[in-house]
Amino acid sequence: MSNEIISHKFRELLLPSLLIAMALNIASVVDASFVSTFLGHNAQAALQVLEPLVMLITIFEWLFGLGGQILALNKKAEFDEDGSNHYFTTSMLSTIVLSALILVACFLFKDALINLLHPTAGALHYVDAYSVYLFICFPIATILGVLCQFIRVDGQPNFASGVIIVVNIINIILDYLFLGVFHMGIEGASLAMLIGYVVGALCILKYHFDSKRTFKFVLSKLKFMSWVISTIEIIKIGLPGASMGFFNVLLIYFMNLIVSGVLGELGLDIFNVCVSALLIISILIMGFAETLSSIVPIYYAQNDFYNLNHIVRNSVIITLVCAVAFTVFLLVYPDGLLMFFKLHQVPNDALVENAIRIYSLAFIPMAFSTMLLFYYEGIERTVESGIITIISEFLGPLMFTYLLFPYIGITSVWLSFPLGFILSLVAVAIYVRIVERNQSEYSGLFFIRKGLIEKTRNYTLESKNDDEKSEMFNHLESLDVDKLSIETLDKIINTIFDSNNQKVHVEVLLIDYDDKITINLKDEGKREVMKDIEKSFSQDNLKVSEVLGFNNIEYVINMD
Question: Where are the transmembrane segments (predicted)?
């Protein structure tokens, strides 16, 4: 047995996922660096004041991008193409409508919105100037982010990543030109971001005209009530991830009030560097987490716990190692980050360094809690993901700040973040143990179905004469499967290898459900082979589809 196909698919999806996470995070980091360099710390403080609005893009991308993607992929796993297209259409339409409404609301109530953010006197002018292009950018960036989520899992991850690269390169180049060369002020940083996303949106139109895409926008088949009901379904699935962004918006808003009230613009500058550090490590963590959430629905729905265990374990280990490395770097050399934001020589530099060191302790528990959250979202365990979100992104940090502030002052703010993540892990572990007692078929934090593990076999075939195929047939014979069914399976496998000139791996999942045996075959070979198999074999117990860019065949042997 090997994990060739799932490992290759994970690597293929990871780069686009990293770049999509970068698109949502790197613009804030780059803007903060250029703004602090060319305009000073009052302007950087303005960016921190506006951070809650910037994070709204993340909320919608998770809400409709990941939520819709999970439901659409589940339908693909069930061989329901119409259902998959229905959720794709619903996700995109809901994104367009709601982001447009928010754009209108931002301009109609601009002054009230800025006052609600409570900018300091020194940052007010910069907040007002930056917000204009930010508001215009909001629907464009949101629609682009949601659509890239679907393109990434539709066999075109390189195209999705290419668009994101273009957006970020344009943004970085124009940031330097508008601020450093043309001296356009903070409006230049905002305009650079807008132009980058407009170019990205034009590039993404290619997907609409691509005949190879499997997600189709079928607005003509979408009725109003079905749109509303499906939107609610998508929100329900995407809410844990999106609420992570929503609660983070609220948390940053309240923390902004605390640090600006105690330290003024310096407090906002310090907090902006802390948030930027979190955004940097989040690029990696969110890349792995979102890749995991794209693969988990397919393999969990098919009860393939062997491959799930492999990919989840590797993802957790890699993210934890990277989080530890970044934490150690900031603990030993915080000036390495502070120099990037021109804060390494400000007064009270010991206060600034102390804040960075303490805040960096959040990265390790954050890595594990984020992976768990997106895994739970992928298997539609909304309560468990909700527990992590509410505690780690809102209640935990606020509670610890309130409890510790009388004793350690402003240090309580930085310390509350790692404590909040740790508390969320403890709480979800306790809840999972309670669920295990009531639902005995599940085992552990990842809800593995105990009764199926021993009845499951995984095989990876490299040729039609592979020894593993003989081992698989021997196992089927031991289960009293009739010879005709075994011969049919052999013909399906031979067709795949013959049509691809042997240059393909076929991953086989075999599960004994007592009354039936389900055999799922995945390969990354030619798409047209599936059509040949559909024509050549009975449709009563065989289904085919394309999922995540690979061929997916389900062959069911009834044992009655």
Answer: 56-74, 86-110, 130-151, 163-182, 188-207, 275-299, 311-333, 356-375, 387-408, 414-432
Torsion angle of the four alpha carbons 407, 413, 418, 419, in this order, in degrees rounded to the nearest 10:
40
**Per-residue CA distances from 274 to 56, 57, 352, 358 (Å):** 19, 20, 10, 10
Pick the range with the lowest mean pLDDT from 41-45, 101-105, 449-453, 547-551.
41-45
Is the CB of residue 12 less than 8 Å from the CB of residue 163? no
* pLDDT score recorded for residue 342: 62
Tokens of 461: 């075939």
**Average pLDDT score over residue span 91-109:** 87
Q: Do 316 and 372 meet the contact criterion of CB atoms below 8 Å apart?
A: no
Q: How confident is the model at residue 20 (pLDDT cuts 50, 70, 90)?
A: low
Q: What is the pTM of this model?
A: 0.72
What secondary structure letter does DSSP report for 77?
A: H
What is the rounded CA–CA span in Å between residue 540 and residue 544? Answer: 12
SS3 category, 518: strand
pLDDT at 465 (0 to 100): 79
Residue owning tokens 């539709």: 154
> What does the alpha-carbon distance between residue 66 and residue 290 come to, in Å, rounded to a whole number?
8
As beta bridge partners, residue 553 has 521, 544
329 has pLDDT over 60: yes
Q: What is the DSSP letter of 465?
A: T
Residue among 247, 275, 245, 272 nearest 260 (CA):
272
Distance separating alpha carbons of residues 238 and 224, to the nearest angstrom: 21
**In angstroms, rounded to a whole number, what is the distance separating the alpha carbons of residues 439 and 431?**
12
Q: What does the chain come to in residues? A: 560
Q: Token match 């005209």: residue?
A: 209
Distance from C-alpha of 401 to C-alpha of 557, rounded to nearest angstrom: 59
Taking the chain, what is the end-to-end CA distance rounded to the nearest angstrom? 29
Distance CA 29, CA 120 (A): 21
CA distances 541 to 73, 476, 484, 508, Å, are 21, 17, 13, 16
Task: Give the side-chain half-sphere CA count within 13 A for 299.
Answer: 31
Closest CA to 457 of 473, 439, 442: 473
330-359: per-residue pLDDT in tens? 888 877 777 666 655 555 567 777 888 888
3-state secondary structure 355-397: HHHHHHCCHHHHHHHHHHHHHHHHCCCHHHHHHHHHHHHHHHH
What's CA 385's distance to the chain center, in Å?
Answer: 13
- 502 DSSP assignment: T
Tell me: pLDDT of 532 over 60: yes
Q: For residue range 304-326, what is the model confidence (pLDDT) as tens digits?
A: 887 888 888 888 888 888 889 98
Phi, psi of 212 (to 5 degrees): -85, -10
d(CA 197, CA 143): 10
